[in-house]
Amino acid sequence: MTPTRLLRTALLSGALLALSLTPAHAQFGKLLKQAGKAAAAGAASDRAATAAQNPAAAPAAAPAGPRFDENVVEITPAVLDRVAAVARADAERRRFEAERSAGREARARQAEAYETCTERVQIEQEERMQGVIKQMKAAQAAGDLNRMMALGDSVRVAQERMLKEAGQKCGAAPDDSDQELRGRKLNLQYKTAVQEAGLSETQYGIIVERVLPLCQAGGGTTAVAGSGRGIFYVYTAAEVEAIGARCAALVPLLAGPQ
Question: Using one digit for the tens of pLDDT, what is the confidence trace for 104-124?
Answer without folding.
Answer: 788 888 888 888 988 888 888
